Amino acid sequence: MKRIIIYTLIFAVIGFVLGYLIFGRISGEYIEIRAIFTSSENILESIGRSITGLKEIKQNILISGGVGAVAGLIISLVRK
What we know:
By secondary structure, the protein is mainly α. The protein has one domain (about 1-80). The chain has helices at about 1-25, 35, 45-50, 55-80; strands at about 25, 30. The relative contact order is 0.24.
């Protein structure tokens, strides 16, 4: 059980990093990592995130992390 959790976490982190490197750019610059994990505090900030595409970027990075976690789970179960 411990090995399954470790594989899942390692591959989730790898997925997040790869997702950030692939999708984390706006105008040629990487967004702050903090912006991925924080939510909008008011309606103006939410509108700003939608206009800049930050919402989609955040979603793509989190999906990449989820795919990495699932891959780690599958690999750990296959290796058993």
